[in-house]
Amino acid sequence: MFVESRMTANPITISSTTTIADASEIMRNNKFRRLPVVESGKLVGIVTDRDLRAVSASPATALSIFELNYLLAKMKIKDIMQKEVVSITTGATVEEAAILMYNHRIGGLVVVDEQEAVVGIITETDIFKSFVDIMGLVDGKTRITLDVTDKIGLLHEISEVFLAMNINITSMVSYALPDGKIEMIIRADIIDTEELERALAAKGYPISHVVHIKS
């Protein structure tokens, strides 16, 4: 799954000379949390709702609301924008986007093409939706968990059990546990869970958890 298929294409952008007041209005009216800043067709910065809140009114300000509004109407985005922007290309995978967001502790990435032109935005919400789709959660499947030891042929042995029982695996994912073992999660249309549990246990892969995920 690639960024291009999950991003919001053609996002609204602003220039570095846009006023803070105008940028705030764009964010408020469109319920955005970030705006890419573009000059001559290329990405030069980004401004977030947090950046705007930092220069907005607070109980501690010594300025009147009229004085503050006047200043915000004069201040430009270039005065507060972040110039070091974490971006990603359309051809990158959703996993790469997720790692970038995780490592930089940010909620979204600007998507650019080879010419550094802004072509989209991908956010943590898009990543979450991708996870839901990848795992087939909307379809409402039976989810089983196996605690296994990683080895060559593991997937083959487990999938053979499903094949013998004529069960189609919708999705399969695994991750390492603190004790070094592997937790494998499988989603499928399973009619007789008890029969599958017996078959897997006979192969040395007992089921540790079963639940039916409803959409």
Q: Regions with pLDDT < 50 over 5+ consecutive residues? A: none
CATH topology of the largest domain: CBS-domain
Task: Assign the CATH architecture of the largest domain.
Answer: Roll
Number of helices, where a helix is a run of at least 4 consecutive DSSP H or I residues: 8
Straight-line distance between termini: 22 Å
Q: What is the CATH homologous superfamily assignment of the largest domain?
A: CBS-domain
In total, the number of strands is 10
The sequence of SSEs as H and E is HEHEEHHEHEEHEHEEHE
Taken together, the total number of domains comes to 2
- Kindly provide the radius of gyration, computed on alpha-carbon positions and rounded to a whole number of angstroms: 24 Å
Structure classification: alpha+beta
Shape, please? elongated
* Mean of residue pLDDT values: 89
Strand content: 25-35%
- Strand order in the sheet with the most strands: 1-6-5-4
Q: Characterize the main sheet.
A: 4 strands, mixed
> What is the helix content?
25-40%
> Class of the largest domain in CATH?
Alpha Beta
Protein name: Acetoin utilization protein AcuB
InterPro entries: ACT-like_dom_sf (IPR045865), ACT_dom (IPR002912), CBS_dom (IPR000644), CBS_dom_sf (IPR046342), Diverse_CBS-Domain (IPR051257)
Organism: Pelosinus propionicus DSM 13327
Domain ACT: 143-215
